[in-house]
Amino acid sequence: MSAVLSKVAVFEELGAAGLETLSGFLESRTYEKGFLLFQQGQEAAELIVVAEGQVVLRQSGTEIARVEAGECLGGVSLVVIGHRECEAAAEGPVEVLSLTRESYLRLRADYPSVALDLQEGILRHLGAALRDLLPNVSNSD
Q1: Closest Cα partner for 97 from 26, 13, 41?
Q2: Tell me, what's the pLDDT at 136?
Q3: What would you report as the CA-atom Rg of the chain, rounded to the nearest whole angstrom?
Q4: Most buried pick, 60, 76, 81, 117, via CB within 10 A?
């Protein structure tokens, strides 16, 4: 599991010990082609790492993105309660690693420095995505 986690950009700051700690809070799941990991409008309550396979994201039935192995989605849902803006479906057989909000809260209570590094990674990733979407916004963070 650590080999997969070490490739995920959001987890860059965790280091080997942090990744090992985090792995104890993750749940592995496998899905067949077409399985809906979550639906548009559903409460967002977990970070999902695609360990193997590909997940397609659709908004109102239109494909908007694909998430490949080594990428994650839903990280912001660990720290901000909200609803999914799209649906996610397995494009073929998929293995994912899930960190639920409840598991994140346990991680935060038991290993606050690991949770802080994770939160900073999520926010850094979000900031980079926003900068990519809004090229005219100042990069003077």
Answers
A1: 26
A2: 58
A3: 15
A4: 117
Kind of pairing, strands 72-73 and 82-83?
unpaired
Q: What are the φ and ψ backbone dihedral angles of 72, each rounded to 5 degrees?
A: -130, 165
Which CATH superfamily includes the segment(s) 2-129?
Jelly Rolls (2.60.120.10)
Integer CA distances (angstroms), 139 to 8, 47, 49, 130, in order: 23, 26, 27, 10
Strands (E), 1-141: 27-31, 36-38, 43-44, 46-52, 54-59, 62-68, 72-73, 82-83, 87-90, 94-100
Candidates 58, 116, 45; CA nearest to 86 is 58
Residue ranges of domains in the chain: 2-129
CB atoms within 10 A of CB 75: 25
Cα gap 118→12, rounded to integer Å: 9
42-77 pLDDT per residue, tens: 999 999 999 999 999 999 989 999 999 999 998 888
